[in-house]
Write a structure and sequence with these properties.
By secondary structure, the chain is α/β, with parallel strands linked by helices. It has a single domain (4-232), classed as Alpha-Beta Complex (Spore Coat Polysaccharide Biosynthesis Protein SpsA, Chain A). It is built from nine helices and twelve strands. It has helices spanning 18-25, 51-56, 71-74, 79-98, 117-131, 172-180, 190-198, 204-209, 229-232, and strands at residues 7-12, 34-36, 103-108, 111-113, 137-139, 143-144, 149-150, 156-158, 162-163, 167-171, 216-219, 224-226. Strands 2-1-3-10-5-11-8-7 form an eight-stranded mixed sheet. Strands 4-12 form a two-stranded antiparallel sheet. It has a two-stranded antiparallel sheet with strand order 6-9.
Length: 244
């Protein structure tokens, strides 16, 4: 089994966005077939979610707004952010139960894959295995907010606090850690949840609820970027706040 053959691929996509599904489907390497959240009989769409839906499903939200200079931390969560987190969570849960591969690739449907995506991913995993550099989470693309640290392998860094979850790889053991956090009992944006799991989150309340327990790496330069919102829109941001 080669490194890329050892990957199960999930794409976060909404049923009402077949346009975005078609866009990324046309760009995925043909030997990396994907599972789509739009095929799951569940509610991930922020346009359809309600507080009563969350209560019925036993989902609880983290007390998110705080007094902060960061405007994203001052405001309530949006239903789109909640749905996005639940979609990622559903991918992890499905992979934990069904994936027979050691690596799980999670893509959002606005991820732009590099032309040499297949070859570079294969090469990266081979170099990691040969160099015996352990990881649980590998960012293929992200938005860094704090400085990274170098590693012994060129092109790979230890990421600082970063946002964006449009392209990342997980190991099978990492799924157990992610699911054990009971994220569905204290939902926060997945962009904040992932960094909390590999470094002390800058918010003390998030840090206390989700302590760091994973080892993360990131590709630098990245292997994926993200379509601009002016081109693809934003299903996460284009939704109501939970208190409206």
């Amino acid at each position: 089994m080669t490194a890329v053959d050892a990957i199960t691929v999930y794409v976060v996509n909404l049923a009402r966005r077949p346009d975005r599904r078609a866009w990324i489907s046309a760009r995925l390497p043909p030997d990396l077939p994907a599972l789509y959240t739009s095929d799951v009989d569940d509610i991930f769409d922020g346009h359809m979610l309600s507080i009563s839906d969350l209560h019925t499903r036993g989902i609880k939200l983290f007390d998110w707004p705080i007094d902060s200079d960061n405007p994203w931390w001052q405001r309530p969560l949006k239903f789109g952010e909640i749905g996005c987190t639940l979609a990622h969570l559903a991918c992890w849960a499905h992979a934990a139960d069904h994936a027979a591969t050691p690596y799980i690739l999670i893509l959002e449907d606005d991820a732009i894959l590099a032309p040499d995506f297949h070859a570079r991913l294969h090469s990266t995993l081979d170099r990691l295995e040969r160099g015996q550099l352990r990881f649980d989470l590998l960012y293929l693309g992200r938005y860094p907010l704090e400085p990274d640290e170098p590693t012994t392998i060129p092109g790979l860094v230890r990421p600082g606090y970063s946002h964006c979850s449009y392209a990342y790889l997980l190991t099978k053991p990492a799924l157990t850690v992610l699911l054990a956090t009971a994220l569905d009992q204290a939902v926060i944006p997945v962009d904040e949840f992932l960094p909390a799991l590999y470094l002390p989150h800058p918010r003390t309340d998030v840090r206390a609820r989700f302590p760091a327990q994973l080892t993360a790496l990131a590709l630098d330069p990245p292997l994926a970027t993200q379509r601009p919102k002016s081109e693809a829109g934003s299903d996460t941001e284009d939704s109501d706040f939970i208190d409206s």
